[in-house]
Each structure stands twice: as C-alpha cells, then as structure tokens.
Write a structure and sequence with these properties.
With 524 residues, the protein is of the alpha/beta class. It has 17 helices and 18 strands. Strands 3, 4, 5, 6, 7, 8, 9, 10, 11, 12, 13, 16 and 18 form a 13-stranded mixed β-sheet that branches. A three-stranded mixed β-sheet has the order 15-14-17. Strands 1-2 form a two-stranded antiparallel ribbon. Strand 1 and strand 2 form a beta hairpin. The radius of gyration is 26 Å and the shape is elongated. The structure holds zinc ion. The site of zinc ion has 6 residues, from helix 10.
Length: 524
C-alpha cells in the first residue's frame, strides 16, 4: 500500500509538471496528460479487433449454461491476467447445461432445397436420427374442443406454429418504393393477419409457450416456427419450449415457401436433423476484474456490461461490443493510470438475458461494495457511439457527470446528449440492478445502427456488424470517465429526485425495488 502510494505521488507529480494550457475553440482549457495518454493508447494500440476475433469467431455465442459461456469466462480472466490485472470468475448460481450441435433442414419434396433455419436454444437433441415428414399448420378452429379433436392429426408431422408474413421486405423499403396506398394497405392487412393469428393460437386453449408441449405429447415430429425480425433475412432466435422433439426457427423466405406449399395441398416433406447435448446443472459465473485503489481502495468505480448472449448469432453487438469496450478501457487504464485513487472494477455479468441474474446476484452478494460505489457505467445497446446519458433520477448527477464529461475529448463529448435528473430505470440492463439499491449507476446509450431490427437477439448478430471506430470512441469515453470518477475529490451524491405523480393512478412514482436473482435456472 505504502509503495503504491509513493508511486502514485510520483506519477501525479509528473502529471502536474506536464499540465499545459492549450486553446480549443477559443477557450483556455487545462490539458490532462492521463486523458491524452488514454486517447493515444487507443488510437495507436487498439486491441479491439483482436479481442473481437478471439471472442466472436473463436469462442462464439455465450448462452447461459453452455460450454462457450464458460470458455468466455476463462478467456476473459486469461486476457486480464495477461494485462497484469487480477481477475476471477465468481460463481453466482446454476443453470441448465446445454450445448448446441448441428442443425440441418432440407426440403425433400416437391423439390430438393436446403432450408435456412436453426434449432432454438435448449432444443432437445435428436441423437443420430434424421426425421423426414410432412408439415401441418395450426388450423383456425372455433374453440379448444375443436382443437382437441384435430390434435391427433399432428402425429408424425412437423407442426408450423407461426403466421405467414405477407412481406419479407422491411417497412423502410416499402416506404421508399411503394405507393402510399399500397404501403397503407399492406400494413392494415398485416395488422389484421397478426391479430387473427394470435386469436387462432388463443382458441387452441394454449399459449405459444404451452402449445409445443401439447403438440409433442400428441406425437408431433417437431415444432417449426419463424420469428421474423422485420428486416431483410433476419430472425430472432430465442429458446425452445419442447422437451422431447426439436424446435427450429426457419427464415421468413423458406418458412413462407413451406407454408404456401402446405396450404395449397402440395404436401411438402422436409427432413430435420439437429443435435444438442444436455449437461445437467452447471455453475454460472460473473467475471470480475479489479485494479485496486491506492487511496480509497474500498470505494468502487465499476465498468459494467453483460457477458452472456442469445445464440442465433455470436452475440457480437448484444453484448459483445459492451464487453469489449469495458475490457479495452480496463487494459488502457492499467497501462496509463495503474494506481487509481479508488478501486476500478469491471463486472462481466452472466445471464442478463434471462433477467439481469448475474448483476442482481452480485449486488445481493456484495453489500459492502454496493454501499461504496462511486459510480457504475453500463453499456448494452449495440456497437454505436455513445449518444445519450441520463441521470437515472439521481438529483445531483448532473454535477459530477458533466464535470467528468468536461474532460472527455470534445469530438466524443459533443455528440452526447445528457438528460438530468432523468428517471430511475427499473430494468433493461444491468445498471438497473444497482439503481434499485440506490447506487449511482448509468447507462451509456449508443447510436442505433438498426440494432433492434438487425442484430438484437438475431441470427445476424455477428462480427461484421461491429463498427470499430465507434467502439474505439466508446473505449476512450469509458476510460476517461472512469479515470475522472476515480480521481474525484468528492464522493458522489446518492440523493434521489422527487419522482413525478403517476398520472394514471394519482400515486407518487416509487423508486424501483430490488428484484431477486434467479440462482437456479432452466432446471425442473
Ligand atoms: Zn444485452
């Protein structure tokens, strides 16, 4: 500790000697050598491409309970260790262990065509079996009684449970080329069809969650769904509900083909072969990296980003980019600011996608840290440059956040819109786990880059969607803010703003309450 303190004093002294006056936009501004070094390190020696290649191309998606998630945890610890930053995997729970294998889907009749599709997460494996069978569509029946009478028809067939989309073109494409009349008509028809399909499922007496179990009990060969994400060639890939038979998602184009052939009585046959492995209950971890503070080691500046993902793509932008931003910021800080005043901690949370479970477990398990948090910066909405920062309902957040931001290079700072005091977020990503305990935690919100449609939870969330220039900008931003927060002579205020009256109920809005983490997931 003493040695560290002396080293720190020496560095601070050198830094002071380097302080110089520069003029930027006509204003005299104190230049900060640490910030300059952050910028220089990222511009000259960025590791982001290499990290992205290793994590997304090498390891792949990081669904909770998969061997890839654990590999990623171990990879991150090894990376940090290589940078001289102590890191550990903290067990917070157990999850159903599952490993994705191959998915092969082919149309056999009326002609041969390989079908674009994949099994959903947690889909039961078929072993070495390949099943070739006809398809059947959930029919529009008057009620659940009629459905029960129809149910034996599914025996030995693949059951199509999603509606036929009227168009595979995204709305922006219609907007550009269609007449207003035909665009309006398409939207009206689609809305009516969507409602009718929801009604069709409802009349079976089941939900989209319970229906697959009923179908497999009645002898169906598999569940065929299509969860179009409203962009060209893009589907959202979530989890299967079937327990014995496979559930696959088929891309809109091929799903439409099979649906129309089935509906017109052509009796198409497809063959499906999927493999997956059940691994029982496996431990789940948060990866925690820490650069110990030299003056206030029990106060924490936290870099936060969930590490897990869905597994249709490789989780590159949800939340690979947030993960790499925080890792890169830590690497830079260790190099240019190795003896921080406060402890700098990076939290790479597990199982955010199933309900912020890793970060909720962390705040439950570490009250001593939560009490002494200077600030948390979380990033979790894609590859874009940070564009928005809101005060999460902390009354004095404008004071410290704008003070820290003032030191961030102006080309990055100037495009960030701030909102104060803002409202406390009750969910959405891991900052909410901290906000619920009254700890100042903020979301670094990114430019959109068609996140919601094209990459978020989709089969297209892959390396090629990353915008590395924006990531470099975010790494510099995070490292700069963390440095400023760590050095700040004062501790951040946790005072909450008075929340507005809810206009519907007439009651005052309450601060979001902590939600308990799920410590044992996906297991019966
Ligand atoms: Zn996310």
């Amino acid at each position: 500790m003493n040695n560290q303190y002396n080293l720190r004093s020496a560095i601070t002294g050198a830094a002071l000697a380097l302080l110089s006056l520069t003029t930027s936009k006509g204003f005299a501004q104190l230049k900060d050598p640490v910030i300059d070094n952050i910028v220089k390190e990222e511009n000259d020696n960025s590791q982001l491409e290499r990290l992205a290649h290793e994590l997304f191309d090498g390891i792949g998606p990081r669904l909770v309970g998969t061997p890839q998630m654990e590999q990623a945890n171990n990879w991150a610890v090894a990376k940090y260790t290589g940078w001289g930053i102590p890191a550990r995997n903290e067990k917070w729970g157990e999850w159903r262990g599952w490993e994705r294998g191959i998915s092969h889907i082919d149309m056999i009749t009326p002609r041969v065509k390989t079908i674009e599709g994949t099994q959903l997460a947690w889909s039961p494996g078929m072993g070495k079996n390949t099943v070739t069978a006809e398809l059947i569509i959930i029919p529009d029946l008057p009620d659940s009684l009629a459905f029960q009478q129809w149910l034996p028809n599914v025996k030995g067939k693949f059951v199509m449970v999603s509606m036929l989309q009227p168009t595979g073109r995204p709305d922006y494409n219609w907007q550009e080329f269609a007449t207003k009349e035909s665009f309006d008509k398409m939207k009206k028809d689609r809305a009516a069809q969507t409602e009718a399909w929801a009604n069709r499922i409802k009349k079976t007496g089941y939900t989209s969650r319970t229906l697959p179990l009923v179908l497999e009990k009645a002898g169906a060969a598999g569940i065929i769904s299509s969860n179009w994400s409203a962009g060209f060639g893009v589907d959202k890939i979530f989890g299967a509900y079937s327990k014995i038979i496979p559930t696959v998602d088929i891309a809109l184009e091929d799903y439409g083909l099979l649906y129309r052939l089935t509906e017109s009585g052509d009796k198409p046959r497809i063959s499906i072969h999927t493999e997956s492995k059940e691994r029982g209950a496996v431990p789940t971890f948060n990866t925690i990296a820490e650069i110990k503070g030299s003056e206030k080691p029990d106060e924490y500046v936290i870099l936060s980003a969930h590490f897990d993902s869905w597994d249709g793509g490789t989780g590159a932008t949800d939340n690979g980019t947030g993960t790499l931003t925080m890792m890169e910021a830590m690497r830079i800080l260790k190099k240019v600011y190795p003896n921080p005043k406060r402890t700098i901690l990076a939290g790479h949370w597990g199982s955010e996608e199933e309900g912020l479970n890793g970060s909720r477990a962390f705040v439950e398990d570490h009250p001593e840290i939560v009490k002494k948090i200077q600030v948390v910066f979380n990033q979790d909405n894609g590859t874009g440059r940070v564009a928005n920062l809101a005060g999460q309902g902390f009354l004095h957040s404008y004071e410290y956040l704008t003070r820290w931001l003032s030191k961030v290079p102006s080309n990055i700072r100037d495009s960030i819109k701030t909102t104060f005091p803002g409202a406390p977020g009750g969910g959405g990503s891991d900052f909410a786990s901290f906000v619920a305990y009254g700890a100042p935690a903020f979301s670094l919100s990114s430019l959109n880059w068609s996140y919601g449609t094209y990459t978020w939870h989709t089969n297209r969330d892959t390396y090629d969607k990353i915008v590395f220039d924006d990531l470099r900008s975010n790494a510099i931003l995070v490292a700069s803010l963390v440095y400023m927060a760590s050095e700040d002579p004062s501790t951040t205020s946790r005072e909450r703003s008075v929340l507005p009256i809810n206009l519907k109920t007439g009651e005052p809005t309450l601060w979001p309450a902590p939600v308990k983490s799920i410590r044992r997931g996906g297991l019966d």
